Amino acid sequence: MSLQYTKNVRLAGDLSHLLAIILLLIKIWKTISCAGISGKSQILFMVVYISRYLDMVTTFISVYNTCMKVVFISSSIATIYLMYVKFKATYDHNHDSFRIEFLLVPCFVLALLINASFDAIEVMWTFSIYLEAVAILPQLFLVSKTGEAESITSHYLFALGSYRALYLLNWIYRYYAEGHYDLIAIFAGAIQTILYCDFFYLYITKVLKGKKLQLPA
Predict the structure, then answer these.
(1) At residue 188, does pLDDT exceed 90?
(2) Residue 43, SS3?
(3) Among 129, 143, 160, CA closest to 216
(4) Which residues lie below 8 Å from residue 111, measured CB to CB, with a gap of 6+?
(5) What's the chain's average pLDDT?
(6) Please, what sign has the CA dihedral across residues 107, 49, 189, 43?
(7) Which of 18, 166, 176, 184 has the most CB atoms lying inside 10 A of its own CB?
(8) C-alpha dihedral (118, 119, 121, 124), degrees to nearest 10
(9) Which of helix, strand or coil describes residue 1?
(10) What pTM, to 2 d.p., does this model score?
(11) d(CA 97, CA 186)
(12) Is the pLDDT of residue 179 over 90?
């Protein structure tokens, strides 16, 4: 029962994550525009996926696991191509001004200092966990600067936040049911979920009622 529950929650998290990516690609492709999307956040997510899935070339877990890793990496590269090459003219460089080096460097240093074991794969995995926790900041910063987000962009952010919240729920359950926990993943997941809390509230009270989502400047 415990194992099945864990699998179901992880699957729901994966599907929510996949849905977020699909919504983002649909938004860009259908509107032929990258307006309202932070290229900086997408670069950070690409770094997250590549650094986390380096073990794909050394360890095989399952066909499902490998396919999901390939999908996440390839979709992030495709998103960046659409934003910086194909639909470059629609990308809002002026408002998407968050300095991502202020996230990349501290996360990498933290991964070097606090990790489960000091080997390349583990350090890069830990780096990806820390970075994913804050990778959405440029997107939230962009929405705050522009004043509002399109409905489909809001749906993308909600699905992305739900994915991490579901994983956090799974970690909490595993701790109480199995005594298993990963402090690094739990800490980073909690930080990431907290960053979404204000957005979740606005999404439920505004977007689901047909209003435009606006973040305080």
Answers:
(1) no
(2) helix
(3) 143
(4) 123, 124, 126, 127, 130
(5) 83
(6) positive
(7) 166
(8) 40
(9) coil
(10) 0.85
(11) 29
(12) no
Residues whose CB falls within 8 Å of the CB of residue 45, separated by 6 or more in sequence, listed in order:
76, 132, 135
- Residue showing tokens 């919504």: 23
Quote the CA–CA distance of 180 and 167 in Å, as a whole number.
14
User: In sequence order, which residues have a C-beta less than 8 Å from that of residue 157 and are 6 or more positions away?
Assistant: 20, 136, 139, 149, 196, 199, 203
- Tokens standing for 169? 């729920």
Asked whether 41 and 139 are in contact (CB, 8 A), the reply is yes
Contact 188, 129 (CB under 8 A): yes
Q: Percentage of the chain surpassing pLDDT 90?
A: 39
**Which pLDDT belongs to residue 105?**
97
Cβ contact 74:89 at 8 Å: no
| DSSP helix/strand/coil, 207 | helix
For residue 143, give the 3-state DSSP assignment: helix
Per-residue confidence band for 166, with pLDDT thresholds at 50, 70 and 90? confident
Q: Looking at residue 1, what is its pLDDT?
A: 46
List, in sequence order, the alpha helices (H) in the chain: 2-31, 39-52, 63-81, 101-113, 120-134, 137-146, 151-178, 183-205
Q: What angle (nearest 5°) sits at the alpha carbon of residue 214, between those of residues 212 and 216? A: 165
User: Euclidean distance between the first and final Cα of the chain, in Å?
Assistant: 46
